[in-house]
Amino acid sequence: QARLVESGGGLVQVGGSLRLSCVTSGRTFHDAIMGWFRQAPGKEQEFVAAINWNGGRTNYADSVKGRFTISREHAKNAVYLQMDTLKPEDTAVYYCAADITYGMGLRSNASDYEYWGQGTQVTVSS
Asked: Which of 40, 64, 82, 100 is 20 to 30 A from 109, comparing alpha carbons?
């Protein structure tokens, strides 16, 4: 059974950094688009970032562009989200997701992603 497991969340002060990890198992996701989404309390889930199969192309939400970096490491079946210069509005549960539909590009709609992790909490305190 395919699994995506996030880790690395926690409590950090404004301006700080965190690195989220997503490790996959149960099937290979090397050809999949991998994405990160987040959901803050009382708000809808929103796209954060996506990366193509070899890391050569990325896509970011405007709200995180220049502060967050998505990357992947096939040898470890992992996808990462480096988050710098964190703001209180970055507080949310962060989810890793996989889009296994070939040839559709770096999609930002959550409904296009077929596999999801359980999420990891990120809290930015001011």
From this structure: 82
